[in-house]
Amino acid sequence: MIVLDASATVELLLGTARGAAVARRIFEPAETLHAPELLDLEVAQVLRRYERAKILDETRAEAALRDLAD
Question: Which residues constitute the domain of residue 33?
Fold first, then answer.
């Protein structure tokens, strides 16, 4: 069982090296995936903070949010 948290989800959405490692783990057939009820809000807050800090531009942050919604 894997419980996905906001930091791992952000890494996955942004396609970082850590995100690739997360993807390898969560897509293993034997794993079950669980997420906190507020995961989407936590991820949105991190993306907002990254945008305000100029770590991400608005376009990339919005794309990550769309990916999360899918």
Answer: 2-69
